[in-house]
């Protein structure tokens, strides 16, 4: 796993890239949108500065690690030397399938292809390639630099060698890995989406305010963040896509709360737009 390529420079992609770079791994960050790529570059630079300020690395070490990161809008160029490619784009199956077909075409034959999906089937995505045994889901959590867990989700044809290498990669960047057999929502997203959706139903029913529902979960169950605060952080549009997929695959108990659909239609997508269940302006 000497060379890592991250496809998608959004919230998750840039976080994954920084986590790799911080551990001195060569990383290429690819995105077709120049503005998103530039935003990702700025985020990574800010994270390096914070790491230096907190004493995690020296300024000299930060300079060396910066030199290990490259940015590209070309998929073919970005993956040409990759040992591991991590796709981190929107939770849209058609988009992921399209990207994996391109990755299969351009990445070296030995390269592992991973999707950062939080709910979708790595088996279905892998089936569009000529290397399903080398495809896997590596589900990172937001914010990636702080969150210690990677869910390693095995598709139907994922090889033991691919799983073992994925665990080695996780350890290399300081993460803990858990092995999960594929099922819609995996482990964390399946439970988390259900909790968040129930919190939204409670809000809609007038059980409590946003602040009090979140405080109850934080102080009563020792959750570090309330479910509504977390939904805002993830992005309400992303949460809605996840809920729609889980509703389709797991049934009625995952039907998205109407208030979630309403907020997304209004463009209130959470922290990234300045307004969701909380007002960030």
TrEMBL record:
Q: Name one GO molecular function term.
A: (3S)-3-hydroxyacyl-CoA dehydrogenase (NAD+) activity
Biological or metabolic pathway of the protein: Lipid metabolism; butanoate metabolism
One Pfam annotation reads: 3HCDH_N
Tell me the ranges covered by the 3-hydroxyacyl-CoA dehydrogenase C-terminal domain, including all copies. 185-280
Q: Does the keyword Oxidoreductase apply?
A: yes
Does the UniProt entry include the keyword Oxidoreductase? yes
The entry's protein name is: 3-hydroxyacyl-CoA dehydrogenase family protein
């Amino acid at each position: 796993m000497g060379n890592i390529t991250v496809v998608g420079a959004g919230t998750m992609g840039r976080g994954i890239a920084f986590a790799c770079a911080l551990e001195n791994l060569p990383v290429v960050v690819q995105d077709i949108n120049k503005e998103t790529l530039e935003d990702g570059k700025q985020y990574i630079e800010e994270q390096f500065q914070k790491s230096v300020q907190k004493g995690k690395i020296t300024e000299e070490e930060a300079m060396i690690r910066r030199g290990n990161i490259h940015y590209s809008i070309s998929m073919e160029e970005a993956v040409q030397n990759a040992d591991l490619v991590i796709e981190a784009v929107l939770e849209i199956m058609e988009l992921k399938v399209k990207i994996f077909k391109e990755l299969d075409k351009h990445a070296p034959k030995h390269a592992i292809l991973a999707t950062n999906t939080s709910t979708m089937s790595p088996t279905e995505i892998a089936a569009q390639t000529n290397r399903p045994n080398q495809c896997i889901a590596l589900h990172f959590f937001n914010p990636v630099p702080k969150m210690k867990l990677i869910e390693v989700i095995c598709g139907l044809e994922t090889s033991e060698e691919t799983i073992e290498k994925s665990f080695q990669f996780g350890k290399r960047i300081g993460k803990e890995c858990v092995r999960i057999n594929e099922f819609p929502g995996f482990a964390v997203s399946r439970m988390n989406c259900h909790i968040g959706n129930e919190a939204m139903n409670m809000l809609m029913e007038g059980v409590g305010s946003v602040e009090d529902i979140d405080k109850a979960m934080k102080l009563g169950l020792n959750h570090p963040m309330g479910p509504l605060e977390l939904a805002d952080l993830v992005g309400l549009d992303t949460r809605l896509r996840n809920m729609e997929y889980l509703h389709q695959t797991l049934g009625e108990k995952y039907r998205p709360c109407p208030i979630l659909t309403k907020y997304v239609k209004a463009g209130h997508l959470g922290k990234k737009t300045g307004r969701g269940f909380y007002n960030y302006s």
